[in-house]
Amino acid sequence: MFAAFLIFPLQRAGWRRARHWLALPVGAGIFYHDTWLPGIESIRAQGSQVFSFTLDYWAELLGRFINWEMVGAGFVLLTLYLFIAQWLRFTPWILLALLWLWVSPQVSNPFASSKGASEHALNTSREETRSSVLPMEEQLDQSAPPTNENLNAYLDDFYREEQERLAHFTESLPAQATPFDVLIINVCSLAWRDVEASGLSGHPVWSHFDIRFNRFNSATSYSGPSSIRLLRASCGQTSHQGLYVTAPKQCLLFENLAQLGFAKQVAMDHSGDFGNYLTGLQQYAGLDVTPMDRKGLAHDLASFDGEPIYRGDALFGRWLNERTQSQAARNVTFFNLIALHDGNRYVASRQIAPYKARLKTLLEQLDDFMTTLEQSGRKVAVVMVPEHGAALTGDKMQMAGLRDIPSPSITQVPVGVALLGTKAPHEATRNVDTPSSFLAVSELVSRLVGKDVFGSETIDWDALLGDLPQTPSVSENQGSVVIEYQGKYHIKLGQGDWVPYPQ
Length: 503
Hints:
This protein is of the alpha/beta class. It has a domain at about 180-470: Alkaline Phosphatase, subunit A (3-Layer(aba) Sandwich). Helices cover about 40% and strands about 15% of the residues. The protein is built from 18 helices and 14 strands. It has helices at about 1-5, 15-35, 40-50, 55-65, 70-85, 90-110, 110-130, 135-140, 150-160, 190-195, 225-230, 255-260, 275-285, 310-325, 355-375, 410, 440-450, 460-465; strands at about 180-185, 210-215, 260-270, 300, 310, 330-335, 345, 380-385, 410-420, 430, 475, 480-485, 490-495, 500. It has a seven-stranded mixed sheet, sandwiched between helices. Strands 11-12-13-14 form a four-stranded antiparallel sheet, covered by helices on one side. A hairpin with a 2-residue loop joins strand 12 and strand 13 (about 490-495). It is elongated, with a radius of gyration of 26 Å. The two termini are about 30 Å apart. InterPro entries: BcsG.
C-alpha cells in the first residue's frame, strides 16, 4: 500500500512535493517497525528511566548504534543509484521485488496455516484427555510442527502447568540441625556468553562452587523482573504480566525461610532507586527489609546515571562484621550487585570501565569472600544467581548492550552453589545439565534446610540433586517472548507471529 501511495500519478507538482515530505516520516516508521530495535511498548515502559542517563553514556550508546561501515556502504550505494538512475528506471524492479516478497511465502507452503490449525486441534483434544495424569515434561509435547498456532498453544500450556508447581519447605527444622546462613548473590549483567567473551571461564572462583547449573534460564533480560522471579522462586514461572500482582506467601523464598527461623537481610551496592527497583521488590516480592547501611563504604565506580556503586569487597566485609555481632542463629541475605552493568565508569577518570576488568575484579572479590567465610568457620550456603547477561557481544537481532529481547545469549546465566563450612570435604564441582530456572534454586534450598547437611560427615548428593525441577526455556519481557522448541529458538514480538530466532 505504501508503494502504491508513492507511485500513484499526481498531476500537480505541489501535491507531489507534499507526498514526498509525507513519505519521509511514514517510511521511517515502517523501516523502524521492520527492524529489531526496541518496540514502542518497551520504549513507553522505560522512557522515564532513559532520561536519567548521563551525557557520557548517551554519547557511548550513540557510538555503538552508528555502524560507520554501513554508513559508508550506504553512501556508495546512493552514489551508484544517482549515477545509474540517469539511464535506468528503478521503479519497475523495486515493484517486482516487493511483489516477490509478498508472493513467495504463499507459493512455498500454501497449506501451512490450515495444516498447523488442524494439527493444533488434534493436539488440543489429546491434551484435554491426558492433562490430569501426565507430568509437565510429558504434557509440554514438542512433536507438533512449529507453526504460529502450535507455538501459541505451547506457551499457554507452559504457563498453565507452571501455575501448579511449588517447592515445598519443611514445616520445622530437623532436631538438632546445625544452623547455617543462606546468601543469595544476585549479580547484574553476567551470562555464560559474557564469561566466555571475557576469557574468564577458567577463573578460580568457579571451582569454589560445589554445584553449578549449566543450563539455567533467567527468564528475562531486565533486572527488576529477574529479581522478582528469584525472590518468588518457590512457585513455578509466571508470565511477565503476572509478576506485577501480589504473589501468594508460599511463593516467597525469603518468607519460607523466615518461617523456619532465618533472619532476613538485604545488602546492595547501590541505592535501588533507579527504575524503582527496590520498591518493586518490596511490593511484588515481599522483600520487607531495610537494606544494610552503605555509609562510609569505598566506591570507585559510578553507574550510567551517576550514582556511586560501592565496592563488592567492602559490602561483603561489612555484612560479615554485622553478622558476627548478630545474635540470630540463622540468616538469609539477598545481595544485589550492579558493578557489571553497562555504562559504569571509573569515578577518578570518568572513563568507561571495561567489562572484563570489572568482571575479573568481581570474581576475585567473590572468591576472596568465600575463602574468608571458610577460614572463619562459618557455615554458609552461597547461592549466586545472576539477573541476566550484559549482551557483551550482541547478535543478529540486537547490538551489544541492548537487552530488549530476552535472547538465550542473555538469559543463560551461570548459577553456582557453594556449601562452606560443612564437615564433608570439598569435592569436584557437580554439574546440573538439565534445563533449569528459579524453581530448582528454591527446591535445592528447601532440601538444604530440610536435611542436616552442615552437621553430617558426608553429603548425600543424590538426595540433594536428584530430580530437581526442570523448566523448559521460556523467556519474556514486556512485548517480546523467546522460547526453545524442538531444539531451536523462536521469537514473538508484541502481537506478531512467531519467527525463528536469527542465528
